[in-house]
Structures are given as C-alpha cells and as structure tokens.
Amino acid sequence: MSPYGILDVGPWQAVVAALLLTHITIVAVTVFLHRAQAHRALDLHPWVSHFFRFWLWLTTGMVTKEWVAVHRKHHAKCETPDDPHSPQVLGLGKVMAEGAELYRGAAADKATIEHYGRGTPDDWVERNLYSRYTWQGMGLMLILDVLLFGVYGITIWAVQMLWIPVWAAGVINGVGHYLGYRSYESPDASTNIVPWGILIGGEELHNNHHAFPSSAKLSSKWWEFDIGWFYIRAFSLLGLARVKKVAPEPHIIPGKSAIDMDTLKAVIVARMHVFARYAQEVMVPVSRAELCRSQGHCRRMARHARRLLVLEGGRIDARARVRLEQLLAQSQQLATVYQYRERLREIWERTAPSQEALLKSLQDWCQQAEATGIQALETFSHKLRGFSIQHTTH
Q1: What residue ranges do the domains of the chain occupy?
Q2: Assessment of whether the complete model's pTM goes beyond 0.85
Q3: How far is CA 275 from the centre of its chain?
C-alpha cells in the first residue's frame, strides 16, 4: 500500500479531505445536535439522524443527551454563574482556551443531564455503543484516516479532533457572546460573529439564534447566509427532513388602524423584530436630533447613545445605569421614547389576567404614544397597528 494511503492522496488533496470531513462534522452538530435535538426545530429522517449520530461518535465522542443538556442549560441560565460557558462570567480567554473542559465539566453533572437532556435518542445502540464507548469511535476514525490517507491521515485525524473544541466550544461559546454585531436585543450578550455562516455551519449567526432559539433557520437579514439552513432545505426537498419552526416574519398590513388580537399576537411573538425596529426607527433618529452638535460628534454620540438605549434591563450594570441616566437627563424627548420602549416591553413581560387586558394595554400604549408629539414615535405607533405575522411555507 502507498505511504499516502489507499486513496494515494497528495498534500493538497489531504487538505481538501480534512476540510470536507470536518465540514460534515459541523453539519452534524448544527443540523442534528443543535437544531433538531436541542431545540426541536425540525425532524430528520431516521437514516439521516443515525448517520449523524454515528459520524459524531467517530469524530467527537460526544453523547447526544449530554450535548443537548449542556446547551439547553446554557439557554436557560445564559450569562449567569450557572451558565456552563459564559465569557461574560468566566472571561473570554477561559472559554476560548478551555471550552472543551467546560463542556465536559457540565456534562459530568448527572442532575443537569437528567433535567435538560430529555427526549434524546435512547435506543439499544445509544445505550450500548455510543454512550458506553465514547473514545473507541475516535480510535476507529484514526484507523480509517491512516488507511485512507496514509501519513497524512494522522494530521487529518488531529484536525478532526480539534475542530469542534476550537470552533464550537471555543469560538461560538466565547466570541459569540463577546464580539460581533447584534441584530436583536435578546436578554443576553450573544452576537453575530459574521453575516456569512459557512465555516461553522451557520452558528456564526449566534445573536439571531438567541433571539429565536427554536428556529431552524439562523439567518434573518437578506444579506445573511446560513449554510446549515441550505442543507436543511436540501434534506426537506429530498423528503429527509421536516421543518417545524422558523422565526416569525412580521409584516405591516397597509391601512390597518384597529389594534386587535392579531396585532397583539404579532407584537408578542415577533417582539425581537419590534424592538429592533423601535431602535432603528425611534431611538436612532431621536438621539441624533437631540444630541448632535456636529457631524463627527453626531456619529460618536449616536453610537454611544444607541448602545446604552437599547440595552436590555438585565444587562445594564451600575456604571452603565449612571451613564444612561445622564444621557436621558439631557433630553426630555429621549427620556420619553426610552420610557415608551420600556412600557412596550412590559406588555409581553407582565402577567395579565386575560388576553383582553393585554390588548387594552397595547391599545393604550399606541394612543398615548401618538399623543406625545414626537414624530418618530407617532410614526412607529401607526406602523405597529398594522403588525401581523406572515405565515410562510418551508
């Protein structure tokens, strides 16, 4: 047999093989473990599911129930001391360097696994092979890599073993809660690392995911690309997957002025869209009009003001709270639109005795917002009256 394996590959062919094999692993994590198992956003054909389970056993040694449980706990306890891997709590360096160790520590907690790992595969092969012999799959992968790629196989195997700990456990769990842009003000520090989710299967769009965790599609803006969603759509066309949930897509019904139950449902279900639009259509123009003294000063103030004004209440520390109060003290209009944003938040956060009571709260909000004399707020309120959920087929 050739020293370069059964396939007798050259160096560039070995690089392509490594990228292809690691990409399959990424697809298995994002489509099977994350979207299908952890969040139940889609159902996969049993053949597809079992292929992904087998492949993850070969390339990561991760147990489905453990991975799902740790991820669900991350969402339930996000950015708190109970979060298994929050860089906001533990520091970015620790999560980047020790992401895999943090995962293993959380997976060793039996209470976490039992509480958050329900509904994952529990058949004979899971109990007697995948969960029982976790490292043997990776050993088998090493043998296969050496047989297929010869001397390059050892390097390819090493890359496979490091791919998920570095990119998923380190970059997504670390950078994805520390650096990047935010399309939605979710009550955590999640960010979109880049708008093109290719290298890590779409997981780069992490803020979008935290805004709509049960969505099978992670891209939101027209210029964002989620390759994981591309594969899901391909599986669906082949009859190998069924999408159950995607993020709601609100639209405005022209001429609609009555605030009814459809409006209320749209505002509550698509609240992340409502907040994003409020920031862009109300907060930004009002802060510019009230705080700008020159073009350069305006740009600096607008960026600074928006960061403070759109922060979710639980993410404002004592220092930021002082700066926010100082900012609001400079302008009555700015203080007013901020107050109305918080009042709008209360509509979906409060416990109301009935849907009718919530509807009355939204009607009062719109009526009073339109009486403030603040043009941006009035315009937004008129648009809010026409809000509805757009139902799409997948």
Answers
A1: 11-243, 251-390
A2: yes
A3: 17
Q: What is the pLDDT along the chain (394 residues), one digit of tens a residue?
A: 678 889 989 999 999 999 999 999 999 999 999 999 999 999 999 999 999 999 999 999 999 999 999 999 999 999 999 999 999 999 999 999 998 899 999 999 999 999 999 999 999 999 999 999 999 999 999 999 999 999 999 999 999 999 999 998 889 999 999 999 999 988 899 999 999 999 999 999 999 999 999 999 999 999 999 999 999 999 999 999 999 999 988 889 988 989 999 999 998 888 999 988 998 899 888 888 877 755 555 556 556 666 666 665 555 667 767 777 777 888 889 899 989 998 998 887 776 678 888 999 999 999 999 999 999 999 999 999 999 986 555 5
The residue written with tokens 């939101």 in the block is: 220
Cα separation values, 71 from 19, 115, 274, Å: 25, 12, 27
**CA dist., res. 80 & res. 67, Å (int):** 19
Query: Sign (positive/negative) of CA torsion 363, 367, 369, 370?
Result: positive
Q: Which two tokens stand for residue 369?
A: 């917002």
CA 254 to chain centre: 31
Q: Which amino acid belongs to residue 61? A: G
CA–CA distance, 134 with 128 (Å, rounded to integer): 10
Distance CA(52)–CA(276), nearest Å, equals 36
Q: Where are the beta strands (DSSP E) in the chain?
A: 42-44, 196-197, 225-226, 241-243, 249-252, 387-390
Question: Taking the alpha carbons of 16, 21, 24, 30 in that order, is the dihedral positive or negative?
Answer: negative
In 3-state terms the chain splits into helix, strand, coil percentages (rounded to 5) of 65, 5, 30
Amino acid at 302: A
Distance CA 42, CA 53 (A): 16
Which residues in 191-221 are b (16+ Cβ under 10 Å) and which e? bbbebebebbbbbbbbbbbbbbbebbbbbbe
Contacts 24+ apart (CB under 8 A), 388-393: 388/250, 388/251, 388/252, 388/253, 388/256, 388/262, 388/263, 388/266, 389/248, 389/249, 389/250, 389/251, 389/262, 389/265, 389/266, 389/269, 389/270, 390/248, 390/249, 390/250, 390/251, 392/246, 392/249
SS3 77: coil
Report how far residue 337's alpha carbon sits from residue 374's, in angstroms, rounded to the nearest whole number: 8
